[in-house]
Design goal:
Radius of gyration: 37 Å
Largest sheet: 4 strands, antiparallel
Bound molecules: zinc ion
Number of helices: 29
Strand order of the largest sheet: 6-5-14-16
Shape: elongated
Mean pLDDT: 89
Distance between the termini: 64 Å
Strand content: 15-25%
Low-confidence stretches: 37-61, 788-794
Length: about 950
Amino acid sequence: MPHDLPKAYDPTAIEDHWAEYWVRENLFAVEAPGPNGAIPASSASADAASASPASGCPDGQSAFTILLPPPNVTGRLHMGHMLNQTEMDILTRWRRMSGRKALWLPGTDHAGIATQMMVERQLEGEGKKRQDLGREAFVERVWEWKRHYGGAILDQMKRLGASVDWHREYFTMDDNLSVAVREAFVRLHDQGLIYRGAYIVNWCPRCQTAISDLEVVHDEQKGHLWEIRYPVIGPAGGELSGEFLTVATTRPETMLGDVAVAIHPADERYKHLHGKKLRLPLMGREIPIILDEWVSLDFGTGAVKVTPAHDPNDFALGERHHLPSINIMDDTGKINAAGGSFAGLDRYAARKKVVAELEELGLLAGIKDHTNNVGHCDRCKTVVEPRLSTQWFIKIEPLAEKARQAVREKHIKFTPEMYEKTYFEWMDNIHDWCISRQLWWGHRIPAWHCADCHKITVARVDPTACQHCGSAKITQETDVLDTWFSSGLLPVSVFGWPNVTAENRNDFDAFYPTSVLVTGFDILFFWVARMIMMGCWFAADVPMPDGSPRTLADSVPFREVYIHALVRDANREKMSKTKGNVVDPIEIVRQYGTDAVRFTLASMASPGTDIAFNVARTEGYRAFANKIWNAARFLFMNVDRAAELGITVDPTALGSIPVVGSGDSDFARWIWAEFHQTARQVDVSLTNYRYDDAANTIYQFFWGSFCDKSVEFAKVRLDFSEGADRTKTKAVLTTLLQVFEATLRLLSPFMPFLTEELWHAVYDGNPPAKSIALASYPVVHTEQYDLVVGGAFADGVQVRMKYSWDLIGDVLSKRKESGVPEKESVPVVIHAVPVALGAFTANVDVISKMAHVSTFEFSDSDLEGPEVFRNFGFYSGKIVYERTVDVAAETDRLNKDIARYEKGIAAAERQLGNPGFLAKAPANVVEGLKRQEAETRLLLDKAREALAALPTE
Ligand SMILES: [Zn+2]
Ligand SMILES: [Zn+2]
């Protein structure tokens, strides 16, 4: 019988079971809506007491759509993913349970460079290169790799219970998504927004491809600044004047491609050289001295060598002064034929040889130490070479402006808001987007070069002839598209674009624009900005369901962007492999369960605040789950016991939230009032992405109001003895079970596994839906709890009960202070104002039992004296206890305590006074030790005081 929960809470067993069940039963599949665009109602069971979900539909849509930022197909789950996915899952489950048609769409990215590298490494192991296989066989090999190893990260997601629609899982190189990529390329080309040009790109000599600025990581490195003397040519030409112009460079080998030297026109040092020429050392060609205000008077010697093919600034100089570009390096970073006698040398070998030869010629003026900002390939860490090459570009401006407008006009809202500024800073300075990559793995550019007329044919269908001259001698472009080109299209392509036709537009109508994008800061420009540009550009051409034109407001790919924070280690350090402080989410889940890890992340997640992940907290939430488990066991035990006596809780009473009123007990009204207040807070918090507030509010309610108070309360009121009032017992049991069931639903988005298990058990294995995730989220009724309106409590039940709980707490702590043995009941004297007095009288049984009070004596006047406890303005009270002390035994006990405390303090002092320990111990350990020492000192003082206060005989 499902009511027989195992004694111990074992997350692994529960989670494996439900994770598999959710996928097998396809619980989160969202069916295509009807042809008229109507969306079938959510399968959530109706909440009897609900009129409408509390959290309406802020974006005016009935569907809630969220796109998983597609992990690389080569990826493995890390803590950042776990946070990202926990946040998305909480939102999706919450919206789904609130009656929205909630679609969370999963997929993976083909990740051009990363995946190609993975397979290249595999080949290396076999002593092969990709060139040995040839393009076609290599690409087939990558597909094979993908079939075997791709998607491991999605399997991890399945185990973690992500409530995504696995039916709709995509891969960015799927046929339908490739169609969208091709259409987008052709359309942009036809619109004159794609061009091919020579441009300085970041070239990775190992990956042998251009990479984007965003894929270059910069590192400070100690290097040198070489000063080289360039001979000035005399007035007659040809002959050297004997004078030199000294330039400074960090990459001397690039001088082989120099075409000029630039100086500032106002530089007094060089005024006499205006119009003169130089003889380029080692190469022998004549190059001009040019004047440009871009040159800094203070850097180096004030004279700058100009190498347009190998530096972006020089490239711009070259354009301004109509200089040629001489590319001296090949794809692998070796000097090519243009480098004369240096041809064939690797760039670093060439550097050495250039410097050596210059020195021999007496042309090396000096070598200075210099800290360089060196760019590395983000994928393979090779030093990137700025290099001139022919690439494909998107003319970004018309797209970027639309994307700026969308955010300016608030069609897209950023949380935290500060990212809007970051977005504009980047978008205002955006350059044309280089979309070509010299890889084999990816979407091949749909352009064909003609051997006869040298023009380019771009087509939706592979052409057989040149569209310009009809020649059949055409060959396809070898470059592929940047990975971000396809992922930037995802919001439109996954819902059927470009084939959004009358018969085939249901998905697009139902799910576009998506509701919110949850992602990390690191891909704000890579991905978020590009989706906005592409979405606004292409969706604008898709008319609305009624045929009217689509406005910018409905063209955006998402209505909100939530940028989540970083997960750091417990000491707020960034997690990194080199530091060895990486927390593996899978490992930590194995130890504590998914629910506890999810709850840890949620309890600390709030906009703009990094998370210091602390295992101690996860341990705490594991204990929370355990506490709920035990509460369930207590409840079920009593339900079964009641059933034996013929008291049964009506199962139809579950799943709804009753409207309580004056006919109900204070207890029922109080716990429901607390519940509604909690549900309200959760709703508000989640709407504002305050996962932390939402989680902590539920935690406090479940642990405090439910487990600590209600369950203890019930232990008093559940009376199974003969002659007891069975109606009362039934009422208490029903309320408890109802609140428990509703609280499981409230908690479910945060702890989906535990709540699923217990929810099925509440219904004894016959729940009203296949999953708690398909049940309805608790609906808030604000009139059901105390509201401070105009300074008066609308209804005082929460306050009245609060007096009772406060009184219990006061009596318990007074008892402890006075050394009353735990089991011994004592009389209590109370003076209280009428409202508090009413509460005490109504709950005298509970208070007596929980605070171990033998009798209450109510006093007409306020109580005074050092032994009195009070709740100002409401009550004062004291316990009646004559302490009988065995002085000898007590003296002995206190002396032992004092000795123990002194020993502890001495040990702590030793450690804290040890510089070796302080240098090595983590900050939190030191802090903890200090705190412990302070606490022990307090205890020591108290024990000494108590010893002094003992009567002497
Ligand atoms: Zn590389
Ligand atoms: Zn042609």
